[in-house]
Amino acid sequence: MEWWKEGVFYQIYPRSFKDSNSDGVGDLNGIKEKLDYFNWLGIDALWICPFFKSPMVDFGYDISDYDAVDPIFGDIEDFKDLLENAHKKHIRIVIDQVYNHTSDQHPWFIESKSSRNNPKSDWYIWKDPKPDGNPPTNWISLFSGEKEESAWTWDENRKQYYLHLFAKEQPDLNWQNENVRKAVYDSMRFWLDLGVDGFRFDAASHFYKNLERDLIKGPQIKKSLFESSRDNCYWDPFTARPETLIEIEKIRKFMDSYQDRASIGEISSDMGLYLYLMFTIPGRFNIAFNIDFLENLSFNASNLRNLVSTLDYFFGSRAWPSYVTGNHDNRRILSRMTDGMNVDIEYKKKISKLFATMLLTLRGTPFIYYGEEIGMEDTYIPRDKIMDPWGKSLWPKPGRDPSRTPMQWDSSKYAGFSNVEPWLPINENKSEINVKAEMEDPNSILHFYKKLIHERKTHEPLKSGTMQFLNIDDDILAYKRESDYAITVILNFSDKIKVLDKNLKGQIILSNYARSDKYGEQFEIRPFESMIIKNDHR
Length: 538
Ligand code: GLC
Fold this sequence. Notes:
alpha/beta; TIM Barrel; Immunoglobulin-like; 3 domains
C-alpha cells in the first residue's frame, strides 16, 4: 500500500507549534526539537503549513518568494536540516504551497502592476472595468464577512482591476500564462529536488477561472442524505474548470517523475463530494483534503453514518478518501461538539476519544490537526488580539485564531511553547491540557491517540480493509473493517448503556473504559464508549 494511504498525517501550523528562538512565534527548529514526539506518537508524515517568505497578511498564505524560508521560521538550511532529521526518523514532510495566488509584495506582482506593458503585465488577472466603472464580474472575495466584498480591487496606476479570490493582498496568478506555469513548476522542482515528500496544494480547485461568467445562486447539490437544508449555494466560475483538471494531471505526471511523492489537493466549494472525485480519480491528485467531512461533523451517530457511508460508497474503488476532524481554518472538534454545554473534563475526554477512534479507523488517510491529540479547545480571542484577516471581517463571529493558538506542551506560563509572550494567547486550560501531564496519565487523550495509531498500524484491516456499516442502534456508529480478518469499531454517542449482539464476539483491543478483553453473558457498550474489537469470526 502507498505510504500516503496507510500513513497517519499530522498537520503543523508552524507559528504555533514550538518557538525555539524566543520571539513568540514557532519555527522550523522548534519542529525539529519535537521529532521524537512524533516517533513516540506513531506519526508517519507531517504537513507543515506555509513557512515561506511572506508579509504574513494571511500568516504565510500570502507568499512573496516561493523558494525562500521566511526569517521568522528560520532559513533554508534549517529546513534542509529538519527534513534530513525527519527522514532519519522515518517521518515524511509534505509542504503547503500556495500556487493560486501570491502576496501583493511578491516581486512578480510589483512588476505586474507597474504598467500595462511590462514583461509580467499578464502574470496576474487584470481587467478593465465595466462601462459603468464597476468590477468586471460580481465575484465576491472568499474572505468576506456578512458584508460581501468584491474579489476585484482597483489599481490606480494601471487603471484596471486585479482579481483576488481571498484578501486584496493575495492577487490571483494568471495560470493561462505559460510563463506563470513555468515559474510554478520551477518552484515545485526546487522543493522536490530538496527531497520534500509531497505538496498540499492550497486552493487547488481555483487555478483557472472563467472570467466571462458571473457568480450565480443555484440549487444545492445534495452532498449527503441529511444535508438538504441549504436550498441554494454559489455556483462559481472559478472552481474545477476543465483547464484546472488538465493542469492537475500535468502536475501529477510531473510529481510522478520523482519517486514516492504525495499530492494532496485543497479542494473546496459548495459542490462537495462530486468535486473531490473529480480531483482524485486516477492520474490526478492522490488525496483531496476532506473539508466536506470536517464541516459536516455533528454529534449524531446517524448523521455521521450518512456522511461516511455516502462518501465511502461514492469513492468506492474510484479514489482514495481522507478524513480530518480539525484544521487551521475551522473550530476545534472538541469545542464544536461541546458548544454551549457545561461539561467536565471526563466528558470531554470521552468525546475526544470517540472522534479520535472514528478518525483513525475509517477507510481513508487520517489527518490529525496539532493539539487534537491532547484535546485542545478553541481559545477566546479578544477583539484587539484578533490576527486573522478573515477573522477581522467576521467579527463579532470568531475567525480562525481560536484554533491556531500555541501548542500546549506543559503547564508553565507560556505552556512550554515559548519563553516569551506568544503571538496568540494560550488557552487557560493549559494546566490540565498539555503534553507533559498527558504523557504521565495512561488514561489521557494523548495516550489514547498513541494506542489508536498503534492499533491502526498493527491491524491490516484498519488500513486496507473494506468497510461495512452495522445496524445496531441509532445512537451507535459501528462498522466492520475486513481483510484477512475482521475488526469491528463501535462508538456509542449516547449516555446510555446499550446491549450488543453476541455475534460481535471477539477480543476487545481498545476501549476508553478499563475492561478486560473478554466479556460475560451480557455484552454491552457503556456511555460514550469507543471500542475496537478483533472478531473471532469474519
Ligand atoms: C486555504 C488555506 C487558508 C488560506 C487560504 C488562502 O483555504 O487553508 O488558511 O487562508 O487558502 O490561501
